[in-house]
Amino acid sequence: MNSPDPTVLATIRSKGHILLATHFNPDGDALGSLLGAADILQSMGKRVFCYLEEPISPLYRFLPGAGQIQTDMNRVREFVDYAQDDFLTLCLDCGDVQRLGRHYEELSSFRPLMVIDHHRGNKGFGDGFWVEAHRSSTAEMVYDLAKALGIEVSSRASECLFAAISTDTGSFRYESTSSHTFRVVSDLVSRGVKPEHVANNLYDNYTLGRLQLMQEVLATLEMYERDRIAIIRVTQHMLDRTFTTMEDTEYFINLPRAVSSVRVAVFLKEVEPLHVSVSLRAKGKCDVASVARRFGGGGHRNASGFRMQGQGVEAVRDLLLPVLREELQA
Ligand code: 5GP
Ligand code: MN
Questions:
Q1: Residue to mutate (ligand 1; options 233, 304, 320; most atoms within 8 A of CB)
Q2: How far is the CA of 190 from the centre of ligand 1 (A)?
Q3: Same domain for 169 and 197
Q4: Which of 14, 17, 98, 148 is 20 to 30 A off residue 316, Cα-Cα?
């Protein structure tokens, strides 16, 4: 129980150079797991390269170690060449190989490649994988990895892992939050994490523009199926008007989801004209991972997503509604 896959563990132990990667558009769990793992592996004397496709979002720059993240693939190639056989790629919080981003083919060619993840539907890619879909977060698994490696988790790594678990559990509210989750965060707090400091950075640090964007987004609310489906949307025009970016929409979907009658909340995000990213959040038995998979996406039972190109926001909504109605009847 809670112990890493033996192949993943043994490979991590044996390699001196580790390339850490996660999914594009990284959320708190992706970034906290990455930076927490980096600190843990560095404390074992390993050389670690933290790769992201884009610079880390300002929201997460408070995470200790955020400055070591690099976005240049040439530097990744140099690191891989230099390490020769003493090398490993470790993918964290990434449910399928294509979510590594636009360089996924090259990144996944840097072998051996090991995966630690908690996404439902992750069939396991790479040469070894430790995937547990019931886990609250990848960060909880990174903590268990440190224990299995016999490493004392530093206060810096603790803060990264705590922030990751806090965001991926919706502040310890989602179904995946277990007694083990609380044991882990209890230990992280005893290692120096100040929950108030993390919460201030994550949840009470927004711009006025974000509040104005929230007003605009909530004004788009549409309700269907006797108020069991709630749909909101954001367009590029709204972002322009409020001087915000798509990152400012994080957590908005939880507002319609919080209405008691709502079983599924949908957030339609116009990434660019005719390119829509869809976030789905469900309560109870409703499985939105299977809904997202019908559209080529994925995720967890209660939190999933997909992307669609060639259609506008309204067309995507009209394609999605019948599938959601079917899922509500299941
Ligand atoms: P979010 O709505 O926060 O973007 O994503 C919620 C969950 O759905 C995340 O766990 C994420 O991994 C998954 N997800 C979101 N978009 C996609 C997608 O386009 N493809 C896949 N496979 N999973 C997605
Ligand atoms: Mn996660």
A1: 304
A2: 32
A3: yes
A4: 98
Number of the ligand closest to the Cα of 306: 1
pLDDT digits (tens, 9 = 90+) for 106-144: 999 999 999 999 998 888 899 999 999 999 999 999 999
- Residue 244 is inside which H or E element, if any? none
Q: Quick one: which of 183, 259, 197 has its CA closest to 225? A: 259
pTM for this model (two decimals):
0.89
Chosen domain end from 175, 203, 231: 203
CA of 100 to the centre of ligand 1 (A): 12
CA of 30 to the centre of ligand 1 (A): 12
Range of the domain at 96: 6-203
Give CA–CA dist 173/178, Å, rounded. Answer: 10
Q: Are residues 124 and 236 in the same domain?
A: no
Among residues 203, 236, 261, the one where a domain terminates is: 203
**Mean pLDDT value across the chain:** 96
Q: Which ligand 1 atom lies nearest to the CA of residue 289? A: 8
Residue 1 has pLDDT above 80, yes or no: no
In this structure, what CATH number is given to the domain that contains residue 272? 3.10.310.30
| φ, ψ for residue 136, nearest 5 deg | -65, -30
Q: Rounded distance, CA 157 to CA 174, Å?
A: 23
